[in-house]
Amino acid sequence: MANILHSRKKQVDASPYASSLIEGHRDFGYSLETAIADIIDNSITANAKQVNIVVDTVSDDPALAIIDDGNGMTESELIDAMRLGSKNPLHQRDAKDLGRFGLGLKSASFSQCRRLSVASVRDGTLTTAIWDLDEIGRRNDWNLDLNEDIDGPPGVEFPTEHGTVVVWKKLDRLSGGIVGDAAKRGEYLNAALSNAERYIRLVFHRFLSGTRPKLRITLNGRRLKPIDPLASSHSAAQIGPEEVVPLPSGNVVIQCVTLPHHKMMMEADWIEVGGPDGHLRSQGLYVYRGNRLIIAGGWLGLARQTELTKLCRVRIDIPNSMDALWKIDVKKASAQLPPAIGSRLRRIIEGFLGTSRRTYQRRGQRLVDPERHPLWSRLSQDGKIVFRPNLEHPAFARFASELPEQFRAGFETCLQLLGSGLPIEALHADLLGNAEALEQDEADERQVREMVNAVGGTLLDAGIAKDRIKDVLRAHDFFRKTWTTAESVIDQYIGDFE
To answer: What class has domain 18-223?
Structure first.
């Protein structure tokens, strides 16, 4: 083996090139909504009670500003805040500190713009700082521009005693790459802002809620209202007891919540809680870190999303001392389930989902209870579920008895064809996509009268008293759906026997 000569031991400066590193910080995967949320995190950590988001989408040089009334920063604090990696994620922090890496202000901003300006006031003294990616690229250094004039979008008011203003300009990515067409660029910006608005209302709903909320957020002067994905304040929400799981790095608090049925909520509230992906996709875990929502839905591999469990939510609260354990990312928009809590959480979820499934299954069995004279029979065959028209239903049996003998077999075959032709694939797709939009067809008065005569006669033959006929039929799903029409028909039917 040849001898290898070692050079004299020494150290050299291998600092990253400023222009290359700072451009790389644009691609951490932020969207507009996660970027704005990261700036608001800083405002909350600075004890802000008011955050105003002001956006100019119509000018040739669109801009966005986020203004808070928090503590503000001195010059040295602002310089440190503008430094990349200003915090060590391993250091202990205050429990309400929503930051982690000291990257959010810069990375979130650069993901949307090329010019980041920050103006901060502490005790009436104003300090400003600017990072301009084009200037950094030209100079290739880390020299921060201090105390230059900053102009924000129209309507921005700078704080006088304390507070901070973050201004994004040169919105190359937020503009969608649209150049020269102000109308199309404005349309793109407004669509992105609409998505961001819902995200902010959801992620910070705990801060925004209550009669005396901890935080007030406005978008172009309009106050944002919270979206509680757990519908906690609804009287029909089923909220289980809290379970505390102690770990060396803090306590995990777990609570199971079942949303109200959609018929017990206002349609607008139901849609808002479900979000753009619907309730099927939004079921699952809701992980909060310092009251700030990190994960909104999904089971993290602990369960499957099914129609039977779409009302199930599991609230999980963790402290910021568990960031490393949960692998909270820079954007604070995703996490991974730690093994230390996985097995405990799995047992809780299995019991919770089992209860939900049994509730649905009991309801399904009740709907096809033979004593209720269902129009459809539910059969279990070789592990499969089959629905067939109930040939013994009083309405079918009565009509068949009135047919000439040679037509009865054909009538029965027609009913069986209905069962064989049940559009399972289409029903399944509609249930997955928007189950609440599925409704049974309205029956007209003639059909209601036929059902009353058939089922009512069967009940009388079975010994049901006349004065109980109406109550029994009211519980029947067919009549409940058409009760406005059915009630008068039933009253007339009962009256005929007086």
So the answer is: alpha beta
